[in-house]
Amino acid sequence: MRRSWSVSITTTVTACLAVVIFLATAQTSLAQRYLEQQPKLNEKEAKALIRDLTAIFRGNGMTAANKQVLDQYFKGWYFPSMTSQSPQALGELAEKRENFFKRNVNLCTNKEARDYLIDTAGREMGKIALQNYHPATRYNAVLLIGLLNEEPGGSGRNAKPPVPWKQGTSVLLKLLEKDSFGSGENKVMVPMSAKVGALVGLQRHARFGIDQAQAEQLNQAAMKMVNTKEGPTGTDPDVHAWVRCLAARVLITQAAEGANQPVVDAVTLLVADPALQLDDRCYAASLMKRLEFEGSASLDVKPTVLALASLTDSVMQDEAKKAKKYQQKIFGGNRGAAFGGGRGGGFGGGEYGGGYGGGGLGGARGKQEPKYEIRRLLDRVYGLTDAMKQVAKASPEAQNTLDPLLDPLDSLAKQAIDKDAIVMETATNVISLSKEMSRLSAAMQPADPAAQPPAEDEGFEEAAPAEEPVAAAG
């Protein structure tokens, strides 16, 4: 069973919104500077219109009276309620966004009413996204814009795809391209969360198709984002790194017909960037599985091959350190674990980069129990192997260079994911393979006259099995 990177993206985006809400609500002194719309109706008055809404959604055509009802409900209550800065309202944004589609748009069989509702929602959310509302409010508005369709998609096999709201694509592009709107006292900054939301929406729009002019504009904006190594002043480097990865994902979606040099170079830049976290670099590598390299003999993939080799070495050295630390705790007398025959558990429902489901070598499951995170290892290894398998199709030279790395990584993953795998065995295999990967990677890299010989492991000796099991904490 393999973990989907799309789950990682969803989790990360959700976590981003949660952080935005927490930080903004924690700083109550700053809340007063954000705009907020006051609903013209209270909740009871709004709910009294639901019967009329249902009749409009199921009817035919649109009258002036119908439009008035829609405006009263959505512009008079529903959308303004999404701008409240109270902690409760901010926490309900995702649910309200979901319900807008589930209980309204998706139930509307009246084309004229649906078109009016989509256009109204897009314009109202556009105002929020581009003006100085609470960051979480703007993020929610951006996500909603990205989900709007001019034409709904069908269902079942061979169903037609939806047609994204074209005006929404323009709004999302503005948010991606600009860091601020206006000037002086009227200057409105674009928070990084809004750019994340824009990239999520643009990824969806690119997947279902946008016109050529917008596609070229999107390519330029996404390419610029990938190549911008530092975010605006005050931006968390890790957040900016993730935005660059999302931009690379958009580029690859746009290049669905086949790999091209600018896109390959852009993704390679992320894979090779030592300033990025290893998990982000592995995610960037995993994106290459969506590119078709076969038949692309004109592509120069040598830098990509070298970047993958270097990243493989970095990943395996990092995993080896963690595996050694795990072994030291097990054999070093940690009283929170017992040496037994426990097996690694199955995948749980943890976050991106989270731990494996089951315990290591059995014993007590207290806070002090040593753990080696198999799930993190598999996330990283699969990102690397997915990339290698695709890049290897570019040429026989690329395949011959990558196969010595790919084969042992595949074997490691198969052993680690086996339901009967012992975590200690996986940790030992990781340590052993790290040495081989270091040797292979070094042999591939161009010679560096200034390079120093690698240092020996600092004082770590693989411990022999204990003569007697360490007693579990009583």
Gap from first CA to last CA: 36 Å
Number of helices: 19
Note the beta-strand portion. under 5%
**What is the total tally of β strands?**
4
The low-pLDDT segments are 1-12, 19-31, 334-366, 457-474
Query: Taking strands numbered 1, 2, ... along the chain, how are they ordered across the largest sheet?
Result: 1-2
Q: What kind of sheet is the major sheet? A: 2 strands, antiparallel
Quote the average pLDDT. Answer: 84
Q: What class, by secondary structure content?
A: mainly alpha
Shape, please? elongated
Helix content class: 55-70%
Q: Report Rg.
A: 26 Å
Order of helices and strands: HHHHHHHHHEEHEEHHHHHHHHH
Biased composition (Acidic residues): 455-465
Region (Disordered): 440-474
Biased composition (Low complexity): 442-454
Notes on the structure:
This protein has helices spanning 5-26, 28-31, 43-47, 50-58, 64-81, 87-91, 93-102, 111-130, 135-147, 166-177, 192-208, 212-227, 237-254, 261-272, 278-286, 302-331, 374-391, 396-417, 423-444; strands spanning 149-151, 163-164, 180-181, 188-189. With 474 residues, the protein is mostly helical. α13 (237-254) packs antiparallel against α14 (261-272). The longest helix has 30 residues, at 302-331. The protein starts with a helix and ends in a 30-residue tail after the last helix. Residues 440-474 are annotated as: Disordered. Residues 442-454 have a biased composition (Low complexity). Residues 455-465 have a biased composition (Acidic residues).
